[in-house]
Amino acid sequence: MIFTKKTPTKFMAVAAVLSSVLVTGYAGAGEMTAKQNMAEQRKAHIISGKTLSAKGPNYQFCEVAPIIGTTKENAVANFYNPTGIAHCTAEDFAKIVAMKEQIMKETGAIDVFLNPSRHWTWDEFEIFEVGDERMFGPVKMAWMAVVPTEAMKKAVGKGSYNPAEIYRNNKFLYKKGTRVYLLDMPDGKVLVMQSWTPFVNKGETADNLKDLGSQFKKLPAGWKFRTKVLDRDLIVSPPAPDRLGWVTMDEFKNTYQGCGYENEACNYVP
Question: 23 lies in a domain?
Fold first, then answer.
């Protein structure tokens, strides 16, 4: 989940300044921290014992994340995602974008992050914290995560190639024999593509992802793109207790999660 941080036509950037309006349920709560707000949201949404799973690759989805908080510092985004329940096409997403104001009103949000229709690259997916389900336009989604908006903006809102830590209690499995798409960082860390989208890079498909390396114009100095056919299963799952994964986007809004960080999320660095 991708984390993937805005407005109907510029929904890849969270509003520069978040309103300080008190959100329903928080009046009189004072200046809570983002950590406290995350705890409140998880308590309000998670359904004990509920999990979801799905099989890929190329499972099509989008995301709707109402932003809840009293200041930009404590605002958090509640992520709803249809993976394991339904799919979200580009046409579905366009209908959801048209409902942004309605979604804000119904959820009490001060803004909404809308992540355009995209495709997962894993072979199997499991998520271990799942919450309430609701319809967004024609698509049924489930609550799957809560993320501080400041962290979200750093990971996917402040341009590309800018990894940031995002909480996620899930597992991606890339099976032996699967082709994966990787960004090598100069310090030895490796970013594994977790989803792709033709939203920016028109014509991008599962079949031509291997050619992305020749299309990048903004890849930082020392970074390299490569593909690899796995000789063993690759598992990406941020470890307890923090369950923080390093997530970023490339210049085409494809998302990646990092291997080789101190809080290692991968069973090996591919």
Answer: no
152 neighbors 66 (Cβ within 8 angstroms): no
pLDDT of residue 143: 98
Nearest residue to 81 via CA among 65, 97, 57:
65
Whether residues 110 and 183 share a domain: the answer is: no
Mean pLDDT of the residues in the chain: 88
Helix (H) or strand (E) holding 143: strand 139-148
Q: Which two tokens stand for residue 177?
A: 């024999």
Residue 1 has pLDDT above 70, yes or no: no
Residue 25 has pLDDT above 80, yes or no: no
pLDDT tens per residue, range 186-224:
999 999 999 999 999 999 999 999 999 999 999 999 999
**Number of compact structural domains in the chain:** 2
Q: Which domain holds residue 78?
A: 34-157
DSSP state of 7: -
Q: 149 and 207 share a domain?
A: no
Q: Are strands 164-167 and 179-184 parallel, antiparallel or unpaired?
A: unpaired
Residue 177 belongs to some domain of the structure? yes
Decide if 270 is inside a domain.
no
Count the residues in the chain.
270
Q: How far is CA 23 from the centre of its chain?
A: 24
What pLDDT does residue 30 have? 55
Coil, strand or helix at 165: strand
Instruction: Spell out the alpha helix ranges (H) of 98-236.
Output: 100-107, 149-152
Q: What is the pTM of this model?
A: 0.85
* Residue 154 phi, psi dihedral angles, 5° rounding: -65, -40
In this predicted structure, the answer to whether residue 29 has a pLDDT above a threshold of 80 is no
Residue that is written with structure tokens 């390396």 in the block: 213
Structure token pair of residue 50: 């509920």
